[in-house]
Amino acid sequence: MAVVLVGILVFVLQDGSQDFELTKNFPAQEIQSIEINNDSWDLVVKESTDNQVHVDIEGNQTDQKKAPVEVTHTSNNLVIQQDKQIGGAFSAFSFHKQGTITVFIPKNTADQVRMVNNEGDINIRALDTHNLIIENKAGNMKLNQVKADSGDFNLIEGDLNIKDSSFDRIDVAARGNDLYFKNVTSPVMNLYSKSGEIVLNGVDEKGEMRVETKSGDIQIDYQTAPASLKVAVENAKGDTTVHLANLRATDNTDEHVNGTIGAGENSVYVKTNSGSIGVK
Q: How far is CA 113 from CA 63, 133, 135, 178, in A?
C-alpha cells in the first residue's frame, strides 16, 4: 500500500508539469532599477560580460494557465515576478527546487537592486550598484564581491554570508539568523540579530561599527591591529575576551570592556544579552 501511495503521489505531482525556460536581454542604458519578487525559486546574480542585462530563467511550470515567472520592463525599471503556482491537489508539496532565476548585470548599471524573497536561496557572485535592498523571509544568502553605496538587509530566517565586499553603509536587521562577514569593509556598519551567531573576519577599523545580538555569540577579528579605536563591549551573560594591542581600558570585566586605542577616531560597539564575545 505504501509503494502504491508513493507511486500515485509522484504521478500526481508530475502530472501537468512541464519545463519552463525564458531568456530576456536589455541594453544597460535602459535599466535604472531592478526589482525581483520571488516566491520560492533560487536567485542568482552575476556580473554581465557585455553591456546588457540578461535574465535567464529555468524551472518547472505546474500551472498551465499562467507562467511561473514574468519579466516586465517599463520606464527604465526591470521587474522580475515569480509567483506561487497552482497545479493540483498536491501542488503545495514540493520535494525539489522548482527553478532558478539568473540575472547578469553590468557594473554601475542599476541605481538600485531590490529583492523580496519568500523562500529560496540567494547567491550574488558579483554586483556593483548604488543601493542594494534585500528582504528575505527564508533561505540562505551568499554575497561575494559586492560593492554598493548602501546595503539594507531585513532577514527573518536563513544564514547570511558576505565576503570580499565593500559598502559605504550597511544595515542588517535579522530575527533568527547567523551572520558571517569576511573581508567586508564599510565606514558605517550596523548589524543586529535577535538570536544568532555573528562572526566578522578581516575587519577594517575605519568608521563606526555596531554589532548586537539578543542571544548568540559574537566574534570580531581585525585584519590589522587597530591604531585609533574607541572600544565599548557589553555582555549581560557570558564570557568576554578582548585582545587588542595598546588598549587603554577603563573597564575590563566579563560584563563591560571600555577603552581607547590611540586617539579613538574610529569606534566599535559590541553587545549580547546571552553569549560569548571575542574581539582581537
A: 28, 6, 11, 23
